[in-house]
Design goal:
Layout (H helix, E strand, L loop, with lengths): L5 E8 L6 E9 L10 E10 L3 H9 L5 H25 L7 E12 L4 E5 L4 H6 L3 E3 L3 H5 L9 H7 L5 E5 L2 E8 L2 E9 L1 H9 L10 H5 L4 H8 L14 H12 L6 H17 L7 E5 L6 H11 L2 E3 L3 H20 L7 H4 L9 E3 L5
Parallel strand pairs: 1-4, 4-6, 7-10, 10-11
Antiparallel strand pairs: 1-2, 2-3, 4-5, 6-12, 7-8, 8-9
Helix pairs in contact: 6-10, 8-10, 10-11
């Protein structure tokens, strides 16, 4: 399906459980080389917060048995479809080429050949009466890859003017060009830990890093976090909630550690880990909810000594939705949307499942 321009919805639900990001995305392919920059624009965009019962259910799902996961997948697909449908109807959106949806990650254990994103069942297309492109990770894991990160093809073709693209969501992931290849990987957890700590004191997140500024960082615990094995592995590598629960929470939830100290500890830890992966004097585009955490940004800048670019709010909040829209368009065009240099898969490939709109 090759056209001169595409209008799609990009849909993303991240591990930080902020909500479901939905954005109208327009893409124009390059006129010449396939490696040239694509043009894009972001239209109407919205984050639909999760109701408490869904937030609790998605947090707990990592420990569900297989039968419960099958039921959850059915329920969540219907829930997600109705969220998207409401967005379409409320904003009178017409003439979409596709809805391109990430779904929500429940299990991610690529070493064991496992990754599960719920919300990608075929009835999402039936409810929406739209072509849906989804389930982007499974094929990559089956081909020996990490199934993540998938955003770097978008970084390469939409944001090539920056030395690094850094996303601060549930996890910090980074993308850069090295010797004609894209290199990208997860660095460390961010909001998946910080938001969890903030919820213990009745707040959804650390607004502007205000809490972290008031906390005390205990050097012993900071060193303990920095010694975690994952940080010393070479890419490709990616993280999941399971790893955070096993390795990070036991350290930051140390008995007797005040919440503000735990938040300060992990903010500084994340900044140190991120800074270690960025060359000084580079240009860095930062997006994701963590871009609003001024204390975290200050610490990254202080440790890395780089030129930081924080874009307009629409791009901060909806870059991942935009890029999943882009991945969907690449799938419709049968073009590469998953890079082996990033995920470790056997070859570059075109990933995703297409549920075609029923014309009736």
């Amino acid at each position: 399906m090759k056209k001169e321009n595409y209008k799609v919805l990009g849909v993303m639900s991240g591990t930080s459980l902020d909500g479901i990001d939905i954005a109208v995305c327009n893409f124009t392919p390059p006129q010449s080389s396939s490696t040239a920059r694509w043009e894009y624009s972001l239209g109407k965009a919205e984050t639909i917060p999760y109701p408490k019962q869904w937030k609790d259910k998605l947090k707990a799902a990592v420990s569900f048995d297989p039968e419960a996961l099958i039921e959850l997948d059915k329920e969540y697909t219907t829930f997600l479809a109705h969220c998207i449908l409401t967005f379409i109807e409320d904003n009178n959106i017409k003439y979409l080429d596709a809805v391109c949806s990430h779904g929500h990650t429940i299990l991610h254990q690529p070493k064991d050949g496992i990754t599960l994103q719920i919300g990608n069942l075929e009835h999402i297309s039936e409810i929406l009466k739209q072509t849906v492109v989804c389930d982007f990770r499974v094929q990559d894991v089956a081909m020996g890859g990490q199934g993540a990160p998938l955003v770097p093809i978008g970084d390469q073709l939409l944001f090539r003017e920056y030395d690094y693209c850094l996303n601060l969501g549930g996890f910090a992931n980074i993308s850069t060009q090295r010797f004609y290849k894209r290199l990208a990987y997860d660095i460390c957890p961010v909001n998946i830990v910080l938001n969890n700590l903030c919820e213990k004191i009745g707040l959804p997140y650390d607004d502007n890093g205000t809490i972290a500024r008031t906390g005390k960082v205990y050097d012993r615990l900071l060193k303990k976090l920095n010694r975690l094995d994952f940080y010393h592995q070479k890419p490709p590598k990616s993280l999941g909630l399971e790893w955070v629960k096993e390795h990070v929470f036991p350290i930051v939830e140390t008995t007797g550690l005040k919440e503000q100290d735990a938040i300060a500890l992990f903010t500084v830890h994340a900044a140190e880990q991120i800074a270690a992966h960025i060359e000084p004097n580079s240009s860095v585009l930062i997006t994701g909810g963590g871009a609003y955490n001024s204390f975290l940004i200050e610490k990254i800048s202080e440790f890395a000594k780089v030129d930081i670019h924080i874009p307009e709010p629409n791009l901060i909040e909806f870059k991942e939705a935009l890029i999943f829209g882009f991945l969907g368009v690449r799938k419709l065009r049968e073009e590469i949307n998953c890079l082996s240099s990033v995920t470790g898969a056997k070859v570059d490939h075109c990933s995703g499942v297409v549920h075609k709109k029923n014309p009736h």
